[in-house]
Write a structure and sequence with these properties.
CATH superfamily of the largest domain: Tetracycline Repressor, domain 2
Number of helices: 13
Order of helices and strands: HHHHHHHHHHHHH
């Protein structure tokens, strides 16, 4: 029985990139070294701490090794490359608290929980969006979040393809909002004002430059002060992110009604 399991594990390892195999714990830790004091989790946690403090560009095998009191070559015995380290960092910060699905609340409220959880990853770890998407999630913590999201819509009359499409739509929207929020936070930390970021500081100039002849549709929005959030008290939609999410959920609701009518 043990022999059979070992053969299966070896085959799985051969099918996966090394970083992914590491995330699933399919790679044995080195048996030799300085008292085997290091492990993959320690290295990943140190790299995340550096990225949280100084950004993703500050992460190098040398910087991580120094922070742990080891040489870079020591790290390579556990994690073969920086790309593998970045993948493991990405998966590690996806190990977020997953609240139980509230059956009585309905799918919309549960999806909002999913959206907010995704958004929080970007605000807690601003570097997260700097790692390019290289394919479908195949690491365990990433997949745990996908599984949770699917649980939010498990009762909807959708095919498996449709369910994955819904989750991808919400995930992409959360990513877009997360990147905007991250950039806003970075701008404010660098000395920008909210008025600069929103364009409110340039409202008077824009009202002269954006003419009705050249910008017939944008002109009235500029003149009303909505474009640069000049009159926030007149806002009748509330938070832009929440408003956008409600529109997306309304669209899904409409799609469900159209399926019911067929």
């Amino acid at each position: 029985m043990f022999r059979r399991k070992r053969i299966v594990d070896e085959k799985i390892y051969e099918l996966l990139p090394q970083g992914v195999a590491l995330s699933w714990g399919l790679v044995k830790q080195p048996q030799r070294g300085p008292k085997r004091e290091l492990n993959v989790n320690q290295i990943v946690e140190a790299a995340i701490a550096i990225a949280d403090e100084d950004g993703l560009t500050a992460v190098s095998m040398n910087r991580v090794a120094t922070s742990l009191g080891f040489t870079p070559m020591s790290l390579y015995r556990y994690i073969p490359s920086k790309d593998d380290l970045l993948l493991l960092m990405q998966d590690a910060v996806c190990a977020i608290p997953l609240p139980p699905i509230k059956e009585e609340a309905g799918w919309r409220e549960n999806i909002k929980e999913y959206f907010n959880a995704c958004l929080k990853v970007f605000t807690d770890h601003p570097w997260f969006g700097d790692i390019p998407i290289s394919g479908a999630p195949i690491t365990p913590n990433n997949l745990q979040v996908v599984d949770w999201a699917l649980g939010c819509i498990k009762e909807l009359p959708l095919s498996d393809f449709e369910k994955m499409g819904v989750i991808l739509l919400i995930s992409n929207y959360a990513r877009g909002c997360g990147l905007i929020q991250r950039d806003l936070n970075r701008a404010l930390q660098s000395g920008a004002t909210e008025g600069t970021f929103s364009g409110r500081d340039y409202s008077a100039a824009l009202k002269q430059l954006v003419t009705s002849e050249r910008f017939p549709h944008l002109h009235p929005i500029i003149m009303s002060g909505v474009y640069t959030e000049e009159n926030p008290e007149a806002n009748d939609v509330g938070d832009d992110f929440d408003f956008g999410l409600e529109l997306i959920l309304d669209g899904i609701d409409s799609y469900l009604l159209s399926k019911k009518g067929k």
